[in-house]
Write a structure and sequence with these properties.
Elements (H helix, E strand, L loop, with lengths): L2 H28 L3 H13 L10 H6 L4 H8 L1
C-alpha cells in the first residue's frame, strides 16, 4: 500500500472523528430548553467570583524574595 493511500485514509478517519465530536456537542447543547439555559446563566452570574484583591505597591516591595523588589533595590 502506498504512503499516500495511508495518509488519505488517516485524513478521512480524522474528518469522520471530528464530525462525530462536533455532532455530539451540538446534540448536548440542543438538549437544554431556553429556560434551562437562562436559569444556568443567571446562577453563574449571581455566583461570587473568585477574584483576588489587588496587591499594593508596598506589599510588592516588602517581600525580600520578590523579583520586583530585587530589581528596584538595585537602582
Amino acid at each position: 500500500m502506498r504512503v499516500s493511500k495511508l495518509l488519505g485514509l488517516a485524513g478521512l478517519a480524522g474528518v469522520a472523528a471530528t464530525g462525530a465530536v462536533l455532532a455530539r456537542g451540538e446534540r448536548q447543547r440542543r438538549a437544554h430548553t431556553p429556560a434551562e439555559v437562562r436559569t444556568r446563566l443567571r446562577e453563574r452570574h449571581a455566583a461570587p467570583a473568585d477574584v483576588p484583591e489587588p496587591v499594593t505597591t508596598a506589599e510588592l516591595l516588602s517581600g525580600r524574595g520578590h523579583r520586583l523588589a530585587r530589581v528596584l533595590r538595585r537602582r
